[in-house]
Amino acid sequence: MYVPSNPIVCEAEGNVMAERYQNYVNGSWSDGSSGAVSTSTNPADLSDVVGEFQASTSADAAAAIDAAHDVKESWRRTSSLARGGYLLKAASYLEANLEEFAQMVTRECGKAILESRGEIGRAVALLQYYGVEGSNPVGSVVPSVNPNILLYTNRMPLGVVSLITPWNFPFAIPIWKMAPALVYGNTIVLKPASATPGVATLIARMWEAVDLPAGVFNLITGSGATVGNELITNDKVAAISFTGSTRIGMNIAAESAKRGKRYQLEMGGKNPVIVLPDADLEQAAEITVSGAMKYSGQKCTATSRAIVVGNIMEEFTNLVVEKTNALKIGAGSDPQSIIVPVIDQASKDNIASMIARGVADGGSILAGGGVPSGNGFDKGTYVEPTVINNVASDAFVACEEIFGPVLSILSAADAEDALNIANSVEYGLSAGIFTKDLNSVLDFADRIEAGVVKINGETAGLEPQVPFGGMKSSSSGDREQGKAAIEFFTQTKTI
Ligand code: NAP
């Protein structure tokens, strides 16, 4: 079992040993001022305590912000090539430690080990991409009406940026925010989700290992209500980049707007695929099940609704059910597992109540619907992969994010009806269509209300060098990743 080497104190907790981790502020590891700690556990085995983490206070968060604020000018005046150099060194460090870090991701958030390796690999790619970005041009020279005037623009960093991140991609999401933030000259304070502070500790270890100057990156663990609130409201914070639920995100938008702070929000989804009668049904069912069920549906871009047009319903549904029933349920440490435990008991209970509500609203369970038994499943937070049909398009289960391995199959009269159903929810993150007809593809790509569009492909997953984000209640502010990240993390100065 992997336990990160940094830092700290071992303490007996019941009959297991829990590591105790510290905050990383101003280049040093330190305890929170209250002395209180919280724990994170392995979703596949709730008796496995990953570690104890600082339950930091608002004052601790303010101290981390002060540290970032104190060095913002020196970091801004470090050349962008040198800043990029730290990212490239971090990418090499990460490559050398990929397996160790992936094991920790699997242990703390339950993810299948192949996907955890993929997540660390993505972080390597992001650090390389933005490391090179440090040597790319920023700004431009623009002709002036006066030949004696040099008229140009430059991109300036914002200052201190707060990063507030979720548990489902506990390594890649912080990296895809901090890599552009740092290379464009900002200093940062990261508050990770309370479920995955151990993975965040590894991020701090990485920056320590490559000698990033003290105060440029700071990690502070603790609850959203305390630490998160300070990271949003503190006067020294210029901007907030948040990924998480729509409910919390909308509150951050309101608080940021009140204080004139810049914000970027990536939030929930209810991602549809449309299956047209001419689709390759075997392929459509395979990809739909993969998009809905991998990582137990805990991706913001997971497929949640399959909207089926015409007389293919029975054949498509049978294929989906057959493929769903064949998925292996098990701990993420087993490379064969597809259905891994969900993040915690509260999430498991929430998924069960969403399924029950779907049934109460007239839905029929075609696969799963309960929790698996035997095989030590009672040690963790497992939920069966579930397929529901006969669901009305405006039923709660068909409109609200579930964040579990649950697929609703909906019926549409024709392509137009399917598009209307797809667009009828408040979210607009990712969407797909299965068809061989080019006109249908182009019409869908034009009219679907989603920030990511897939053609005969899985709604989940996007390469890191392209912009990522959603429409409607799924996102607010500038896109993340690729070249687009410069828009959020810099401001233009015209000279
Ligand atoms: P969450 O409950 O909204 O939490 C996200 C982060 O916000 C955590 O660090 C949380 O801290 C913090 N937080 C909670 N209350 C806060 C407050 N009052 N002020 C400031 N920060 C606060 O979301 P989650 O359960 O971790 O993640 C799942 C959600 O993320 C899903 O809705 C999913 O769709 C979304 N997501 C979206 C994307 C995307 O790119 N669109 C990607 C991944 C996930 P605590 O953990 O301490 O509460």
Number of helices: 16
Shape verdict: globular
Q: What fraction of the residues are assigned to beta strands by DSSP?
A: 15-25%
Query: For the report, how would you describe the main beta sheet?
Result: 7 strands, mixed
Report mean pLDDT, rounded to a whole number: 96
Find the count of extended strands (DSSP E, 2+ residues): 24
Structural class comes to: alpha/beta
Strand order of the largest sheet: 16-17-18-15-14-20-21
Which stretches are low in confidence, meaning pLDDT under 50 for 5 or more residues running?
A: 1-16
Helix content: 25-40%
What's this entry about, in short?
The protein is α/β, with parallel strands linked by helices and 495 residues long. Helix content is 38%, strand content 23%. The strands form six sheets. It has a seven-stranded mixed sheet, with helices on both faces. Strands 11-10-9-12-13-23 form a six-stranded mixed sheet, sandwiched between helices.
